[in-house]
Amino acid sequence: MKPEFNSKSFNFTMAGLLIFLAGSLILMGIITGEIFYPEEYTYTTSQSMISDLGATEPPHSLITQPSATIFNFSMIIAGILVLLGTYFSFRAFKDRLGAILMGLLGLGALGVGIFPGNINPQHPLFAITTFISGGLSAIYSYRLINSPLKYVALILGLTGLFFLFTYSMFIPIMGGGGVERWVAYPIILWLIGFGGYLVGLGSKEPLE
How far apart are CA 130 and CA 105, in angstroms? Predict the structure, then answer.
């Protein structure tokens, strides 16, 4: 007997796949960009910002290839994936605030890729949008997740926002790049975890 189409299951699955792929792409884009960063230039995870892979800040901006292309395109594609995942997530949860927060996260990631670190003030604005909306999205997902993962999402969101708003306090200890990674990586981990959760949720939805 041919199974019936379940629109809610489809929405959960699509949202999960897109969000999972977005988080994975950002993570691997950063790692790959770091691998191919030219050895003749200094790049360290403690002192270099993540966006330095795309371009360093003005007035003496440095753009290296292929790291810049890898990082910028990874962010652009990931931003689009998050925006598409937001659409399907909204269709599944019907949660307006959650969709707004995640939509801002996708828009911020997209803007970071389109406007690399050498473009001001656009890049800093999109970067801070990504960090704030990403942390808030992770925290807000506590309401949407019905498993122990909700506590992990809450901790990841709070961790990212904590280091964002205490940034200058930890620079002497971890360096600017180190602190930024404690802001960004919890969001990336949440995207991967939340995406996987949604895929699993879609497989559990009963047939209509």
Answer: 5
Angstrom CA distances, 145 to 7, 74, 114, 151, stand at 19, 27, 32, 9
Contacts of 146 (CB under 8 A, 6+ apart): none
Q: Which range of residues forms the domain containing residue 108?
A: 8-203
Look at the block and give the residue holding tokens 């050895």. 39
Is 184 contained in some domain?
Answer: yes
79: Cα separation from own chain's centroid:
8
Is 194 a domain residue? yes
Q: How many domains does the chain have?
A: 1
Q: Which two tokens stand for residue 198?
A: 């949604």
CB count in 10 Å sphere of residue 36: 15
Position 3 in a domain: no
Q: What is the pLDDT of residues 3-59, one digit of tens each?
A: 555 788 999 999 999 999 999 999 999 999 999 999 888 899 999 999 999 999 998
* Residue 2, in any domain of the structure: no
Distance from C-alpha of 102 to C-alpha of 129, rounded to nearest angstrom = 11
User: What pTM did the predictor assign?
Assistant: 0.93
